[in-house]
Specification:
With about 350 residues, the protein is α+β, with helices and mostly antiparallel strands. It is about 30% helix and about 30% strand.
Length: about 350
């Protein structure tokens, strides 16, 4: 088909032949000569995108308030019902030029890079699609949180970010985990996660090599790293697999009548938000099921428990009772106050999701 420029040229030719066309002088009263400056804008885009890795792009235009006013005024004065907007024409014409200059395809549905022409500010803005990396991690030591926390100098997220951002530089990053373990707990099974790099300058790296680099830390291990999209974040965050835990607990008095704990299997535990996290979480009642519980006596006051429970059950409070905020609890059933010495996540039942 014809471009708007070609259509306009044909219309002017007919008008000229009929003696209706007036000579054109100066810049267009509507766009201020924008379409005569497409090459200048194209060069700006080439300069701004230099050094950025991307597969596809889309052009967007932010019109100045003056341009919007003039365009709407023209529509009203002429009574035009069917026309193409300035923005649509600008986006298409710049897009065609940039396909040739950049050697990349325009893609309105799923662009890697959004190039915005801000006519109000007379500048180019870039919005780069984030890079998402899916994987699974183990936390091999106690005392580090999963995500960034001012109180702690190192986190699972930090260890991954330090290695990943060397290869794929970006403005910032985010960590999306399938649940999280306590800071003082280890995670000995593989927990799914997605690592997100925002406004990345690169998009590709050898993920097997990245795995090896991360695993040098000895504090965590990762495996099965693959590039993914934002949908994987939703999938990972919405998954609620059961967890199996190993708990080492110490009681105030010698332990007896452990058979009573069989009553916990299959029942619903009612938990108010634990007192240890009340300062940062809403106080509400949660109801979660214990799927299974086993125990082994270590000393007359120490026991090891293997507990399978629904996602979201606070395991420490299942042992201690949290001064009555969790009912029933191991301490309550045995009538023997207990404290947790060690906690490990030993199985994340993702295979059953």
């Amino acid at each position: 088909g014809f471009t708007n420029k070609e259509r306009g040229k044909a219309v002017r030719k007919i008008l000229r032949e009929k003696g209706f066309e007036k000579p054109l002088k100066g810049k267009c009263e509507i766009c201020g000569g924008f379409f005569q400056e497409l090459d200048k804008w194209s060069e700006k885009i080439v300069k701004e995108t230099r050094g950025i890795e991307f597969e596809s792009f889309v052009i967007g235009t932010v019109m100045s308030s003056e341009l919007i006013r003039k365009e709407e005024s023209l529509w009203e004065e002429t009574g035009i019902e069917y026309c193409e907007s300035f923005k649509a024409e600008a986006n298409r014409e710049i897009g065609k030029k940039m396909e040739k200059k950049l050697g990349k395809k325009a893609d309105k549905q799923n662009p890697t890079l959004t190039i915005i022409l801000d006519l109000e500010e007379k500048k180019i803005r870039l919005e780069i699609k984030p890079v998402f990396i899916y994987g699974e991690y183990q936390k091999l030591v106690r005392g580090i949180p999963q995500t960034k926390w001012d109180k702690y100098p190192i986190t699972v997220e930090d260890i991954i970010a330090e290695c990943a951002l060397k290869r794929i530089p970006g403005d910032s990053h985010a960590f999306h985990g399938c649940g999280r373990e306590d800071i003082d707990a280890r995670c000995l099974d593989w927990r799914p996660f997605v690592f997100e790099i925002k406004n990345p300058k690169k998009r590709h790296t050898d993920l097997k090599s990245l795995e090896k680099e991360i695993n040098k830390s000895k504090k965590i291990k990762v495996r099965d790293l693959v590039f993914c999209d934002k949908n994987k974040v939703i999938e990972v965050k919405s998954a609620k697999p059961d967890k199996t835990y190993r708990v080492l607990a110490e009681f105030e008095k010698p332990v007896k009548n452990l058979e009573k704990l069989k009553t916990l299997k299959g029942i619903i535990i009612k938990q108010r938000t634990p007192s240890r996290v009340l300062h940062r979480r809403a106080d509400k009642l949660r109801e979660k099921r214990v799927k299974n519980i086993k125990w082994k006596v270590i000393t007359n006051k120490k026991c090891e428990f293997i507990i399978r429970a629904e996602a979201g059950l606070y395991i420490k409070e299942l042992i201690t009772g949290d001064k009555g905020r969790t009912k029933p609890s191991v301490s309550e059933i045995l009538e023997n106050p207990a404290k947790v010495l060690e906690l490990d996540v030993i199985k994340i039942h993702t295979e059953e999701i």
